[in-house]
Amino acid sequence: MSGDIYMAAAGALATERKLDLIANNLANVNTAGFKRDIGQFKFAEPAVPPAGSPAPADSVMQLAAEAFWTEFRSSTDFSSGQFKNTGNTLDVALSGDGFFSVQTPEGLRYTRSGDFTLNSDGILSTKNGFPVMGTGGEIQIPQAAEKGESNVVAIDSEGGITVGTTKVGQLRVVDFEDRSQLQKVGNTLFAAPEAGGEAVEAESFSINQGFLELSNVDSVKMMTEMIQVLRGYEAYQKIIQSIDRINQSAVREVAA
């Protein structure tokens, strides 16, 4: 069988992977703190077998379709999204560098989503119930004000939290030397790599109370890109169908 059909199938598989990535970006266009993913493909040269392949160079056309694109890499775009004024006391948005620290059952995780709330114990938490970490651990927000004090929660630009005139905590904002090593684990959370991904205290940031950082997905751009990818996928399908018809015709002629 001609290797052309494998090359066309490889292109179709590549566009399918990219389509999945675009669809996920679009699904999170309204998710606060979401960071879009960018996909890149590296294709093998027609005359050079993929790394690690047992096939010699002269038989590269007989490899499975997946082998023709040897690497799929998705990276995260950490650029800031637009801010939305919510007016909610516990909503905060980060300007500049850094991530909020969150304690989960799997360990510390990091996020740019600042739509916080209070759990039943008065602990500052994410919408999923994970405690938001301060410089001294979990942050307890008093449920009732002290006599003569206001119970209004105020969060300053450096992350200091006060209730009335009493400071109750300081948000821990961290950053990483190489953000590309962070791994998405769902719910806008990131996990640091086990080795070489230590968090450091962020410096160039400002916290804005009553605002949320929106997703950095450009829905118009994503829709345009999706249309382009779909057209590419359709083109590969037509190529595969054409090659299949040619192969069937060749088989009939040889049999005759």
Structure notes:
The chain is of the alpha+beta class. It folds into 2 domains: 4-79 and 217-255, no CATH class; 84-213, no CATH class. Helix content is 24%, strand content 29%. The chain is built from 2 helices and 19 strands. The chain has helices spanning 4-27, 219-255; strands at residues 37-43, 69-76, 83-85, 92-96, 99-104, 107-111, 117-118, 124-125, 133-134, 137-138, 153-155, 160-163, 166-170, 173-175, 183-186, 189-191, 200-201, 205-209, 211-213. The strands form 8 sheets. It has a 4-stranded antiparallel sheet, with no helix packed on it. The chain has a 3-stranded antiparallel sheet with strand order 11-12-13, with no helix packed on it. A two-stranded antiparallel ribbon has the order 1-2. A hairpin with a 2-residue loop joins β9 (133-134) and β10 (137-138). α1 (4-27) runs antiparallel to α2. The longest helix is centred in the last third of the chain and has 37 residues, at 219-255. It is elongated.
